[in-house]
Automatic annotation (TrEMBL):
This is Stationary phase secreted protein TasA, major protein component of biofilm matrix. It comes from Mesobacillus selenatarsenatis (strain DSM 18680 / JCM 14380 / FERM P-15431 / SF-1). NCBIfam families: cognate_SipW. Pfam families: Peptidase_M73 (PF12389). It comes from the Bacteria.
Length: 210
């Protein structure tokens, strides 16, 4: 056999030997453990006991009414704050030819004839005229004022009392016995009250039960 062939066999044999040595580095023992992990979002569910709070017609100056709405927390999460939003629609100016100005007015004029007092669990939150409720459309009014404490824990409820008074204004037209409030006869509006609940701030959590 030539020297070149002998060298080639020697090199192949050496390579095979290294391969066998490298392939022998494995362990017979091992262990596998598994953990099953879950997370689930809670529910935020503000409820009301009425879909219509007041629906009255044929009102006159001096009339008033008080209605109570119960707000409840039917969710699993505590409610941080509750905000009141309000929108007004459906108003139309009714003309009265026997009045010197034909009874012309606008929606704000009409709504100013009504005072609205809001109470939470018999605590007064203040009195506004109905036209001021329109500002709650873009700037919702906080009605809980609970600070850092939850407004409603899961399963709790609160009473919101709303009193509306048609103001009796004795003012008259100049040189006339006709009262200026005559211009509001036959007029009306639809006021939508919307209550919005917010969650408590996020926080570090541990496993349930810990």
């Amino acid at each position: 056999m030539s020297i070149k062939k002998k060298m080639g066999i020697g090199i192949l044999t050496g390579t095979l030997g290294l391969s066998l040595i490298g392939g022998g580095t494995w362990a017979a023992f091992n262990d596998v453990e598994n953990t099953t992990n879950t997370f689930e979002a809670g529910t935020l569910d503000l409820t009301t006991d009425k879909s219509v709070l007041f629906e009255l017609s044929n009102l006159k100056p001096g009339d008033y009414f008080t209605k109570t709405l119960k707000l409840g927390n039917n969710g699993s999460l505590a409610i941080d704050d509750i905000f009141l939003k309000s929108t007004v629609s459906g108003w139309e100016d009714v003309k009265h030819s026997h009045l010197s100005d034909n009874g012309e007015n606008n929606q704000v004029d009409f709504l100013k004839q009504f005072k609205v007092t809001i109470k939470r669990d018999n605590v007064s939150l203040g009195t506004v005229t109905a036209d001021q409720l329109m500002s709650y459309t873009t700037n919702p009014r906080e009605i809980t004022g609970s600070g850092t404490n939850p407004a409603l824990l899961s399963g709790e409820d609160m009473d919101i009392e709303i009193k509306v008074e048609f103001v009796n204004d004795p003012a008259t037209y100049p040189n006339s016995r006709l009262h200026t409030q005559n211009k509001y006869q036959g007029e009306g509006a639809e006021i939508s009250l919307k209550f919005e609940a917010t969650q408590m701030p996020g926080e570090e959590r541990n496993n349930d039960g810990e």
